[in-house]
Amino acid sequence: MTTAAVDHLPLPLLRSGKVREVYEVDAGRLLLVASDRVSAFDVIMRERVPYKGAVLTQITAWWLQQLESEVPHHMLASTADDIVAAVPSLGAHRSALAGRAMLCRRTTVFPVECVVRGYLSGSAWKEYKQTGTLAGEPLPPGLRESDRFDPPRFSPATKAETGHDENISVSAMQSVVGTDVATMLESLSRRIYERGRDIAAARGIIIADSKFEFGRDAEGTIRLIDEVLTPDSSRFWPADRHAPGGPQPSFDKQPLRDYLDAERRAGRWNGEAPPPTLPDGVVAETSARYLDAYRRITGAPLDLSDL
Fold first, then answer.
1. What is the dihedral of CA 284, 288, 291, 295, to 10 degrees?
2. Is the confidence at residue 4, as pLDDT, over 80?
3. Average pLDDT, whole number, for the chain?
4. Which residues of the chain form CATH 3.30.200.20?
5. Which of 4, 128, 144, 216 is most exposed, with minimal Cβ within 10 Å?
6. pTM for this structure?
7. Is 70 in contact with 192 (CB distance < 8 Å)?
8. Quick one: pLDDT at residue 243?
9. Interval 269-298 mean pLDDT
10. What is the pLDDT of residue 42?
11. Which residues of the chain are in CATH 3.30.470.20 domains?
C-alpha cells in the first residue's frame, strides 16, 4: 500500500511530519497514521520502505501493552477494525488504515524529548569525544564509543521541527517544563527504558538508547505518547555482537545510511535534497531490518496479510 491511500481521510489534517500524519478526530482524540516514508541525515528519500509504517505502529502498540502497568499512555486502538468501530466515518478507508494507524487520546505535548542512554553512542559520543561532556555536563574520562552506562543516563533534548534535536541539561529542561514535571518525566522515562531494556535483553537485543515523548490529557494525567521503543526512536543492537570501541550493527535503516555515506564519500551526493535514487536492494534490505526488529522484539512475525 502506498501512502497516497491515506491522503484523503474525512478528518482534518493537523500536521504532516517526516514519517506520519496526525488527524483530528474530535476534541479528545487524534488519529496517527505512519507512512512508509524514510529519512536519513534529515533528508526524506523518494522511495518508500515497504511495511516500515506498520512496523513502527504495531511495535509501539505491542510495547504499550507491555508497559500498561508502568505508565499511562495515549493509545485507544491500533487495529483497523477497532478504529473503524470507534470512528465509523473511516469505514470506507479501512484498508488504508490497516496496520499503520493508531487512535489516541489527545494531549498537550511537553516540548522536550526524554532520552535515556544505556550506552555511549550517537550525538552523546560525538560530544564526549570532543569535550568529555554530555549536554555540557562532565562524564567519566576514558570511555569508549558504545561503552555501557551504569546506571543509564537521562539526557533530555529539545524537540526540533527541522534538523537535529539538541541535547540539553536537566536544569535546562526544568526551566522549560518546571521542576516537578521534569522530575516526573525523568522517573517515567527511566522506568520505561529499564522495563524495555530487560524485555529486549531476553530476546538478544540491546536497547542502547531511546527517546520518549509525553503529554498531559484534559484530566491532567501525564501520558506516554507518540512512538515507543521502535527502531526509529531507539538504537537496537544485537547483544551477541556488542564490542565497545566503535559503532555497532543495528536493526534499523543502517543499510540506507551506509549507502548514502558511500555516495557522499564518492562525491555523488552532497548530503542535501534531492537525495540519490536508492537501489532496490537497499530498499529491500532496509525493509527486512525493520521486519526483523519486530519479529525479534515481539516474538512473532508481523502479519502482512492485511497490509
1. 160
2. no
3. 94
4. 12-106
5. 4
6. 0.93
7. yes
8. 97
9. 96
10. 86
11. 109-241
Is 74's pLDDT higher than 60? Answer: yes
Closest CA to 242 of 118, 126, 140: 118
Domain 109-241 annotated CATH 3.40.50.300: no
Q: CA 69 to CA 188: how far, in whole Å?
A: 12
- Tell me, which fold does domain 12-106 have in CATH? Phosphorylase Kinase; domain 1 (3.30.200)
pLDDT in tens, 150-165: 999 999 999 766 556 7
DSSP letter string over the chain?
Answer: --GGGGTT-SS-EEEE-SSEEEEEEETTEEEEEE-S--EETTEE-SS--TTHHHHHHHHHHHHHHHTTTT--B-EEE-SHHHHHHH-GGGGGGHHHHTTTEEEEE--EEPSEEEEEEEE--HHHHHHHHHHSEETTEE--TT--TTPEEEEEEE--EE--SSS---B--HHHHHHHH-HHHHHHHHHHHHHHHHHHHHHHHTTTEEEEEEEEEEEE-TTS-EEEES--S-TTTEEEEEGGG--SSS----SSSHHHHHHHHHHHHTTS--SSSSPPPPPHHHHHHHHHHHHHHHHHHHSS----TT-
Grid coordinates 470506507 are at which residue? 92
Other beta carbons within 10 angstroms of residue 141's beta carbon come to 7
C-alpha cell at 61: 502498540
pLDDT, tens only, 18-72? 889 999 999 999 999 999 999 998 899 999 999 999 999 999 999 999 999 989 9
